[in-house]
What we know:
With 292 residues, the protein is of the alpha+beta class. It is built from 7 helices and 13 strands. Strands 9-10-11-12-6-13 form a 6-stranded antiparallel sheet, with helices on both faces. Strands 2-8-7-3 form a 4-stranded mixed sheet, with no helix packed on it. A 3-stranded antiparallel sheet has the order 1-4-5. It starts with 7 loop residues before the first helix and ends in a 6-residue tail after the last strand.
Amino acid sequence: MNPKRKSYANICQFNDMYAPTDKNNFSLVREPFGTPCSPQLFQAFLFASSIPNPEAYKASASDPDTLTFDQAMSSPDKHEWIKAANLEIAELVAKGTWTEVFQSEAHSKILPGTWVFRRKRRPDGTIKKYKARFCVRGDLQEGDFETFAPVVAWSTIRTVFVFAITMRWEMLTVDFTNAFVQAALQEPIWIHVPRGFQVVGQTEPTCLQLKKSLYGLSVAPRLWYEHLYQALLEDGFTPSSDKCLLLKPNMIIFLYVDDCGITSPTMSEIDAFLARMRIKGFELTKDEGFSE
């Protein structure tokens, strides 16, 4: 007879249900301008744009604002990273990302996870946010599956900026909260409990069976892209030659992983679009512009 399993979502609701295994571990804390434009006109505008200098987008070899778990837990900002990790787990649990099961019930390799901690800064260099992201070691996944997901071209982004400024349209960015988790998995995947958290009260080792896609999975970017792309088509957008650029006579949107840029003649049209996306179940936050 199998022991009764407890929902991992229920376990995560209570701080005292977690016990640290070492000094670095932690428990969950309950803490009116412009005019309409046809897709054909914009396509011509896109075709006429030049390719930007790739050196402008070269990444630094090392980033002091990106930390590993050990670095974060030994830094002076440890308390901020712990709060960020608690928030990340709480959001994943709230979305029904996984269910706790016994390790003996896993039908494939149980994948480890990893933490990525990052300071997000404002243009003036001050810290805007401490961000923790729990990712799965998707590089250890076994099997053959389609993983390609398109990313908008930099030339497309530059063209959208120039077009919006020329037409005097409103512009803003949208961040989808835990975007990859908003797409359902097509095949079951099992992962280990996130480092820093430990479930107590079980007589047998447990793991987590994923119900939703998660950052780090090989298929996660593609599942998220297909999920969002289909929703935009249903809203009346028309695809373009750039797979991450979609058009309407009164709106242009480009997709960049879990963010998107939007431009439209009026902010009321953008707000109406975002309201429709929320009704469809998308969780998102609206930024004021492209400065960050």
